Amino acid sequence: MVYGFFPPRFSSEWFTWAAEVRANIQREIESSNDPIFFSCEALCLLRTDSELERLKELFPADRTHIIVTLRDPKDFLSSWRKHLRQDFYRESKDPTSFAYVKKDSWLTDYEELHNAYLKHYGEHITTINYERAIALNGSIIPALASTFHAGQQPLPEWSNFFLNQGNRPPRKPIKGLARPAHYIRFYLWRISIAVKNTIHRP
Questions:
Q1: What are the 10-residue block averages of pLDDT along the chain, 202 residues in total?
Q2: Which of 12, 24, 169, 192 is 20 to 30 A from 114 in CA distance terms?
Q3: What whole-number distance in Å separates Cα of residue 59 and Cα of residue 24?
Q4: Helices 49-58 and 12-30 meet at what angle, rounded to 10?
């Protein structure tokens, strides 16, 4: 919504868009008997009964298996802090905020996260240790695939794809959201790209 990708929240356009998203998810689920893998990092923010009940409207408990990939808390908070900064969010001092990234952040209360999903999805939960999976395979893809019984078949080539690298380019600053540091970071990156192109130009 911040970037204008979605309509303003609670506008008539927003309700239409939200209904279309829900309908599309329902069509995807009903169109195949094969397992469908949905990945959404923001699902780790859900904790309350009302949030999980809304999720179950899209993904019924009797047809859904939850896969939770947990990182070392310190590493996760460091990564989340970079993500917030990249997207122009300010770190919050409010312990209840999604942007609160101090070491006592509720975001890394993994026991509470597990219990919230356990309450609504029963035993249909698998937990993957991020660091262990990376150490074993250099990726979490094989560990994820094994959760829906794809382990008996060879995976398609995946090891050469790097579509979600942590060193993604800085976002173009948005007036009213970006701070001076965002402008500096963005234009230094632009200059570095221009210099590299000049150096490599035949």
A1: 69 91 90 84 92 93 92 94 84 94 96 95 91 90 78 67 60 75 78 76 58
A2: 24
A3: 13
A4: 60
